[in-house]
Design a protein that fits this description.
Blueprint lengths: L4 E3 L15 H4 L10 E3 L6 E3 L4 E7 L5 E9 L2 E8 L29 E3 L4 E4 L18 E8 L22 E5 L29 H23 L1
Parallel strand pairs: 1-10
Antiparallel strand pairs: 2-9, 3-8, 4-5, 4-7, 5-6, 6-9
Bound molecules: zinc ion.
Amino acid sequence: MTPFLFYPVKDKINPTNLFGANPIEYKPLGQNGHPGNDYESITGTPLYCPVDGLARYNWDSLGGDGIWIKTTQQGQNYNIILWHMPTLSNSGIPTVANASQYPFQIKTDGNYYPVKAGQLLGYTDNSGYHPVGPSESTAQHLHLGVMPANENWAAQNPNNGYLGCVDPHPFYNGLFAEDIGKPPVVIPPPVIIPPLPAPLPPNPTPVQESNWLTSITNWLIKVLASLQK
Ligand SMILES: [Zn+2]
C-alpha cells in the first residue's frame, strides 16, 4: 500500500490518544480503544482535504459533526472520517462553535460531492462534547479515522472494536494538504565573503597605492556579486 493521506492540518497528533489508546474510556462507547488520530487543533482551524474522493457532511446522535470522504486507493475502498467539526445542531446538543461562525465548505445536504486533496473543507471544533452524559469529545480537536470499506462503502470489518477503523499512521504520506500547489520553499546558499586584501605598508609608493585600490575595488565587486546570488 502506497501512503495516500495528506495531513489535514499542521497541528501535531496527540501522543496520548493514538489509535487503540485509552480502552477504559472507550468501553462505554462499545469500543476497544480510540478509533483514529486526534490532532491538537483549536476551534476555527482551517481543515484541508487529505485525499481525492467524494465528500459528504455527516453527524451522529452524540452531537458530533463532520465529513466522510469515500476514496478508492490501489483497488481498496476507504471511508476517511474527519470529525468534531462545528455543529449544525442536528443533534440539539450545543458545542463551542457552530457552522454559521465556521461554515462547511461543501454543501451540508448529506449528498456526496467530488473533492480534491488540498481544498478547504471547513474548520475544526469540538462537536460531540457534552458536559453531562455520554460525550464523544472532551476538548477542541480534529479526529481522523480510516475505515477500509466494502463495495457498498460499509466498514469491511465493523466488529473489530474500533468501528471498523484501522491505525491511520501507515496511510500518511508525510505532506500537508495545505501545502499542495504552493511552490517549494527554496533555501538560498550561504553567502561567502572573500578575505580583505592585506593592508599597505606605511608610506606606500603611489604605484603600490593604486594596486591596493584595484584589489579593494575587485574585492567589493566580489562581495556585491555574492550578495546578489
Ligand atoms: Zn479521536
